[in-house]
Amino acid sequence: MSENRTTRRSILRAVGGLSAAAALGGGSVLATASAAHAAGDGFGLRIVDRNESDPRMWYYRFATDEIGWDPGVNVLLPDGYHTSGRAYPVLYLLHGGGTDQDFITFDRWGIRALTAGKPIIVVMPDGGHAGWYSNPVSSHVGPRNWESFHINQLLPWVEANFRTYAEYDGRAVCGFSMGGFGALKYAAKYYGHFASVSSHSGPASLRRDGGLVAHWANLSSAAVELGGGSVYGMPLWDEARVSADNPVERVESYRHKRVFLVAGTSPNPVNWFDTVNETQVLAGQREFRGLLGQAGIPHEWHEEPGGHVFRDYMFRRDLDGIIARLRRA
Protein backbone atom coordinates (compact mmCIF):
# COMPACT_ATOMS: atom_id res chain seq x y z
CA MET A 1 0.00 0.00 0.00
CA SER A 2 1.15 3.46 -0.78
CA GLU A 3 0.17 4.11 2.80
CA ASN A 4 2.08 2.39 5.60
CA ARG A 5 3.67 3.43 9.02
CA THR A 6 6.35 5.31 11.70
CA THR A 7 7.01 8.03 14.73
CA ARG A 8 8.01 11.46 16.09
CA ARG A 9 9.50 13.16 19.16
CA SER A 10 8.46 16.39 20.74
CA ILE A 11 4.99 18.06 21.18
CA LEU A 12 5.10 17.88 24.94
CA ARG A 13 8.58 17.63 26.14
CA ALA A 14 9.91 19.53 29.17
CA VAL A 15 8.61 22.67 27.58
CA GLY A 16 10.31 22.14 24.32
CA GLY A 17 7.95 22.04 21.40
CA LEU A 18 7.84 19.88 18.28
CA SER A 19 9.63 20.24 14.99
CA ALA A 20 9.02 21.81 11.60
CA ALA A 21 10.53 22.49 8.18
CA ALA A 22 11.57 25.30 5.85
CA ALA A 23 12.13 26.53 2.31
CA LEU A 24 11.65 29.05 -0.57
CA GLY A 25 11.07 29.19 -4.26
CA GLY A 26 13.00 30.01 -7.36
CA GLY A 27 13.18 29.74 -11.09
CA SER A 28 14.49 26.88 -13.15
CA VAL A 29 17.95 28.36 -13.60
CA LEU A 30 20.94 26.48 -12.26
CA ALA A 31 22.94 28.26 -9.58
CA THR A 32 26.49 28.75 -10.81
CA ALA A 33 28.42 29.69 -7.66
CA SER A 34 30.66 26.89 -6.49
CA ALA A 35 30.84 27.71 -2.77
CA ALA A 36 29.67 30.12 -0.13
CA HIS A 37 32.73 32.25 -0.85
CA ALA A 38 31.06 33.32 -4.10
CA ALA A 39 28.25 35.44 -2.72
CA GLY A 40 29.33 35.50 0.91
CA ASP A 41 26.77 37.83 2.43
CA GLY A 42 23.47 38.73 0.83
CA PHE A 43 19.69 38.29 0.96
CA GLY A 44 19.67 40.11 4.31
CA LEU A 45 22.25 37.69 5.74
CA ARG A 46 25.76 38.46 6.95
CA ILE A 47 28.14 35.61 7.73
CA VAL A 48 29.63 36.04 11.21
CA ASP A 49 31.19 32.59 11.55
CA ARG A 50 31.94 29.77 9.14
CA ASN A 51 33.86 26.51 8.83
CA GLU A 52 34.43 24.94 5.42
CA SER A 53 37.36 22.73 6.40
CA ASP A 54 35.40 19.47 6.34
CA PRO A 55 34.93 18.06 2.81
CA ARG A 56 31.23 17.43 3.40
CA MET A 57 29.81 19.30 6.42
CA TRP A 58 30.07 23.07 6.05
CA TYR A 59 28.90 25.35 8.85
CA TYR A 60 27.70 28.95 8.84
CA ARG A 61 26.36 31.41 11.38
CA PHE A 62 24.47 34.45 10.18
CA ALA A 63 23.49 37.86 11.45
CA THR A 64 19.97 38.70 10.26
CA ASP A 65 17.33 41.25 11.20
CA GLU A 66 14.76 38.42 11.24
CA ILE A 67 16.31 36.74 14.31
CA GLY A 68 17.50 38.52 17.47
CA TRP A 69 20.63 36.37 17.68
CA ASP A 70 22.91 34.68 15.12
CA PRO A 71 21.31 31.42 13.88
CA GLY A 72 23.47 28.61 12.53
CA VAL A 73 23.12 26.38 9.49
CA ASN A 74 24.86 23.16 8.46
CA VAL A 75 25.17 22.36 4.77
CA LEU A 76 25.97 18.69 4.15
CA LEU A 77 27.47 18.22 0.70
CA PRO A 78 27.36 14.98 -1.29
CA ASP A 79 30.49 12.91 -1.85
CA GLY A 80 32.38 14.24 -4.84
CA TYR A 81 30.67 17.65 -4.82
CA HIS A 82 33.94 19.58 -5.15
CA THR A 83 35.10 17.75 -8.27
CA SER A 84 31.92 16.69 -10.04
CA GLY A 85 30.92 20.07 -11.46
CA ARG A 86 27.30 18.87 -11.33
CA ALA A 87 24.24 20.50 -9.82
CA TYR A 88 22.29 18.71 -7.08
CA PRO A 89 18.80 18.68 -5.61
CA VAL A 90 18.46 20.01 -2.07
CA LEU A 91 16.75 18.61 1.02
CA TYR A 92 15.89 21.11 3.76
CA LEU A 93 15.94 19.07 6.95
CA LEU A 94 14.19 20.62 9.98
CA HIS A 95 14.89 19.72 13.59
CA GLY A 96 12.38 19.24 16.40
CA GLY A 97 11.58 21.37 19.41
CA GLY A 98 13.10 21.30 22.87
CA THR A 99 16.03 22.83 24.67
CA ASP A 100 18.29 20.04 23.38
CA GLN A 101 17.19 20.44 19.74
CA ASP A 102 19.01 22.64 17.24
CA PHE A 103 20.70 22.63 13.86
CA ILE A 104 23.33 20.07 14.94
CA THR A 105 20.71 17.55 16.09
CA PHE A 106 20.75 15.54 12.88
CA ASP A 107 24.55 15.56 12.88
CA ARG A 108 24.43 13.94 16.33
CA TRP A 109 21.94 11.42 14.96
CA GLY A 110 24.32 10.34 12.20
CA ILE A 111 23.03 12.25 9.18
CA ARG A 112 26.47 12.08 7.56
CA ALA A 113 26.41 8.28 7.51
CA LEU A 114 22.75 8.14 6.49
CA THR A 115 23.43 10.30 3.43
CA ALA A 116 26.80 8.82 2.43
CA GLY A 117 26.94 8.25 -1.30
CA LYS A 118 23.60 9.99 -1.91
CA PRO A 119 23.52 12.64 -4.69
CA ILE A 120 21.78 15.37 -2.68
CA ILE A 121 22.69 18.47 -0.67
CA VAL A 122 21.16 18.53 2.83
CA VAL A 123 20.61 21.92 4.52
CA MET A 124 19.99 21.81 8.29
CA PRO A 125 19.03 25.24 9.66
CA ASP A 126 18.43 26.55 13.14
CA GLY A 127 14.72 26.74 13.91
CA GLY A 128 14.77 27.80 17.56
CA HIS A 129 13.99 25.69 20.62
CA ALA A 130 10.28 26.27 20.05
CA GLY A 131 10.17 28.48 16.99
CA TRP A 132 7.56 26.36 15.22
CA TYR A 133 8.93 27.51 11.87
CA SER A 134 6.79 30.61 12.18
CA ASN A 135 6.81 34.37 12.46
CA PRO A 136 5.20 34.77 15.89
CA VAL A 137 2.31 37.05 16.72
CA SER A 138 4.40 38.48 19.57
CA SER A 139 7.91 38.26 21.02
CA HIS A 140 9.40 39.91 24.10
CA VAL A 141 13.00 38.96 23.30
CA GLY A 142 13.47 40.56 19.90
CA PRO A 143 12.67 39.19 16.43
CA ARG A 144 12.19 35.43 16.04
CA ASN A 145 10.89 35.31 12.47
CA TRP A 146 12.04 31.80 11.60
CA GLU A 147 9.71 31.48 8.63
CA SER A 148 11.05 34.63 6.96
CA PHE A 149 14.64 33.65 7.72
CA HIS A 150 14.22 30.23 6.10
CA ILE A 151 12.05 31.12 3.13
CA ASN A 152 13.07 34.65 2.16
CA GLN A 153 16.75 34.57 3.12
CA LEU A 154 18.30 31.15 3.59
CA LEU A 155 16.77 29.38 0.62
CA PRO A 156 17.88 31.94 -1.99
CA TRP A 157 21.28 32.21 -0.27
CA VAL A 158 21.80 28.46 -0.63
CA GLU A 159 20.82 28.58 -4.29
CA ALA A 160 23.17 31.49 -4.97
CA ASN A 161 26.15 29.84 -3.27
CA PHE A 162 25.90 26.15 -4.11
CA ARG A 163 25.33 24.21 -7.31
CA THR A 164 21.64 23.45 -6.94
CA TYR A 165 18.53 23.13 -9.09
CA ALA A 166 16.73 26.35 -8.19
CA GLU A 167 13.31 25.05 -9.08
CA TYR A 168 10.33 23.12 -7.74
CA ASP A 169 11.67 19.72 -8.79
CA GLY A 170 15.00 20.52 -7.18
CA ARG A 171 13.80 20.90 -3.58
CA ALA A 172 12.40 18.74 -0.79
CA VAL A 173 11.55 19.57 2.82
CA CYS A 174 11.54 17.08 5.68
CA GLY A 175 11.47 17.28 9.47
CA PHE A 176 11.07 15.54 12.77
CA SER A 177 8.49 16.48 15.42
CA MET A 178 8.15 20.28 15.38
CA GLY A 179 10.22 20.12 12.21
CA GLY A 180 7.79 17.63 10.72
CA PHE A 181 5.05 20.17 11.26
CA GLY A 182 7.28 22.84 9.75
CA ALA A 183 7.86 20.73 6.67
CA LEU A 184 4.13 20.18 6.12
CA LYS A 185 3.46 23.86 6.70
CA TYR A 186 6.17 25.14 4.32
CA ALA A 187 5.24 22.69 1.57
CA ALA A 188 1.62 23.87 1.58
CA LYS A 189 2.12 27.56 2.28
CA TYR A 190 4.88 27.90 -0.33
CA TYR A 191 3.39 25.53 -2.84
CA GLY A 192 5.84 26.05 -5.69
CA HIS A 193 8.93 25.59 -3.56
CA PHE A 194 9.02 21.86 -2.72
CA ALA A 195 8.20 18.80 -4.78
CA SER A 196 8.52 16.41 -1.81
CA VAL A 197 7.46 16.78 1.82
CA SER A 198 8.11 14.37 4.70
CA SER A 199 6.94 14.48 8.30
CA HIS A 200 8.55 12.13 10.82
CA SER A 201 6.39 12.25 13.95
CA GLY A 202 5.22 15.73 13.08
CA PRO A 203 1.70 16.96 13.92
CA ALA A 204 -0.62 17.57 10.99
CA SER A 205 -3.66 19.06 12.74
CA LEU A 206 -3.53 22.24 14.84
CA ARG A 207 -7.22 22.43 15.84
CA ARG A 208 -8.18 18.85 16.75
CA ASP A 209 -8.95 18.00 20.40
CA GLY A 210 -9.69 21.57 21.32
CA GLY A 211 -6.63 22.87 19.48
CA LEU A 212 -4.13 20.95 21.60
CA VAL A 213 -1.22 21.37 19.18
CA ALA A 214 -1.86 25.09 18.64
CA HIS A 215 -2.06 25.59 22.42
CA TRP A 216 1.18 23.66 22.85
CA ALA A 217 2.86 25.80 20.19
CA ASN A 218 1.81 28.89 22.13
CA LEU A 219 2.82 27.57 25.54
CA SER A 220 6.16 26.09 24.51
CA SER A 221 7.15 29.16 22.49
CA ALA A 222 6.17 31.46 25.35
CA ALA A 223 8.28 29.45 27.79
CA VAL A 224 11.52 28.88 25.88
CA GLU A 225 11.48 30.99 22.71
CA LEU A 226 9.58 34.26 22.97
CA GLY A 227 9.88 35.42 26.60
CA GLY A 228 6.13 35.19 27.13
CA GLY A 229 5.14 35.98 23.56
CA SER A 230 3.35 33.43 21.39
CA VAL A 231 3.24 31.94 17.92
CA TYR A 232 -0.51 32.24 17.37
CA GLY A 233 -1.64 34.71 20.05
CA MET A 234 -2.87 34.27 23.61
CA PRO A 235 -5.49 34.12 24.96
CA LEU A 236 -7.14 34.58 21.54
CA TRP A 237 -5.58 33.07 18.44
CA ASP A 238 -4.97 34.84 15.17
CA GLU A 239 -7.38 32.49 13.42
CA ALA A 240 -6.18 33.36 9.92
CA ARG A 241 -2.63 32.37 10.86
CA VAL A 242 -3.74 29.08 12.35
CA SER A 243 -5.68 28.21 9.20
CA ALA A 244 -2.80 29.25 6.93
CA ASP A 245 -0.40 26.95 8.85
CA ASN A 246 -2.75 24.01 9.45
CA PRO A 247 -2.01 21.06 7.13
CA VAL A 248 -5.50 19.58 7.39
CA GLU A 249 -6.95 22.88 6.15
CA ARG A 250 -4.54 23.00 3.19
CA VAL A 251 -5.08 19.57 1.66
CA GLU A 252 -5.23 20.74 -1.97
CA SER A 253 -1.77 22.26 -1.53
CA TYR A 254 -0.25 18.77 -1.38
CA ARG A 255 -1.51 17.73 -4.80
CA HIS A 256 1.26 16.74 -7.24
CA LYS A 257 3.77 16.46 -4.41
CA ARG A 258 5.41 13.39 -2.94
CA VAL A 259 4.04 13.08 0.63
CA PHE A 260 5.67 10.81 3.24
CA LEU A 261 4.31 10.44 6.79
CA VAL A 262 5.54 8.52 9.85
CA ALA A 263 4.01 8.18 13.33
CA GLY A 264 4.51 5.90 16.32
CA THR A 265 1.80 3.58 17.64
CA SER A 266 3.15 2.66 21.07
CA PRO A 267 4.43 5.58 23.12
CA ASN A 268 6.47 4.95 26.27
CA PRO A 269 3.90 4.32 29.05
CA VAL A 270 6.23 5.68 31.74
CA ASN A 271 6.90 8.90 29.85
CA TRP A 272 3.76 11.02 29.74
CA PHE A 273 5.38 13.61 27.47
CA ASP A 274 6.09 10.92 24.91
CA THR A 275 2.62 9.43 25.29
CA VAL A 276 0.78 12.71 24.81
CA ASN A 277 3.08 13.79 21.99
CA GLU A 278 2.91 10.73 19.81
CA THR A 279 -0.75 10.01 20.58
CA GLN A 280 -1.62 13.46 19.26
CA VAL A 281 0.74 13.11 16.31
CA LEU A 282 -0.76 9.77 15.31
CA ALA A 283 -4.33 11.07 15.58
CA GLY A 284 -3.51 14.18 13.56
CA GLN A 285 -1.70 12.27 10.85
CA ARG A 286 -4.61 9.82 10.55
CA GLU A 287 -6.99 12.76 10.14
CA PHE A 288 -4.68 14.26 7.52
CA ARG A 289 -4.30 10.96 5.68
CA GLY A 290 -8.04 10.55 5.55
CA LEU A 291 -8.46 13.95 3.94
CA LEU A 292 -5.69 13.28 1.44
CA GLY A 293 -7.36 10.00 0.53
CA GLN A 294 -10.75 11.64 0.08
CA ALA A 295 -9.15 14.20 -2.23
CA GLY A 296 -7.43 11.49 -4.25
CA ILE A 297 -3.95 12.76 -3.38
CA PRO A 298 -1.36 9.95 -3.29
CA HIS A 299 0.72 9.65 -0.11
CA GLU A 300 2.89 7.13 1.66
CA TRP A 301 2.29 6.55 5.35
CA HIS A 302 3.88 4.41 8.03
CA GLU A 303 2.74 3.62 11.55
CA GLU A 304 5.67 2.12 13.45
CA PRO A 305 6.00 0.57 16.93
CA GLY A 306 7.39 2.93 19.56
CA GLY A 307 6.92 6.52 20.56
CA HIS A 308 8.19 9.98 19.73
CA VAL A 309 11.62 9.17 18.30
CA PHE A 310 13.55 9.68 15.09
CA ARG A 311 13.74 6.39 13.19
CA ASP A 312 16.84 6.21 11.05
CA TYR A 313 15.51 3.26 9.03
CA MET A 314 12.45 5.30 8.07
CA PHE A 315 14.64 8.23 7.11
CA ARG A 316 16.71 5.97 4.83
CA ARG A 317 13.54 4.83 3.09
CA ASP A 318 12.30 8.40 2.87
CA LEU A 319 15.60 9.68 1.48
CA ASP A 320 15.55 7.16 -1.36
CA GLY A 321 12.04 8.33 -2.23
CA ILE A 322 13.07 11.98 -2.10
CA ILE A 323 15.99 11.40 -4.46
CA ALA A 324 13.78 9.41 -6.84
CA ARG A 325 11.23 12.25 -6.94
CA LEU A 326 13.63 15.17 -7.45
CA ARG A 327 15.62 16.15 -10.49
CA ARG A 328 18.70 13.94 -10.76
CA ALA A 329 22.18 15.28 -10.06
From TrEMBL:
One of its GO terms (molecular function) is diacylglycerol O-acyltransferase activity. Its EC number is 2.3.1.122, 2.3.1.20. It is an enzyme of class 2 (transferase). Keywords: Acyltransferase, Hydrolase, Signal, Transferase. It catalyses: an acyl-CoA + a 1,2-diacyl-sn-glycerol = a triacyl-sn-glycerol + CoA; 2 alpha,alpha'-trehalose 6-mycolate = alpha,alpha'-trehalose 6,6'-bismycolate + alpha,alpha-trehalose. Residues 1-38 form the signal peptide. The keyword Signal applies. Belongs to the mycobacterial A85 antigen family. This is Acyl-CoA:diacylglycerol acyltransferase. The lineage of its organism: Bacteria, Bacillati, Actinomycetota, Actinomycetes, Kitasatosporales.
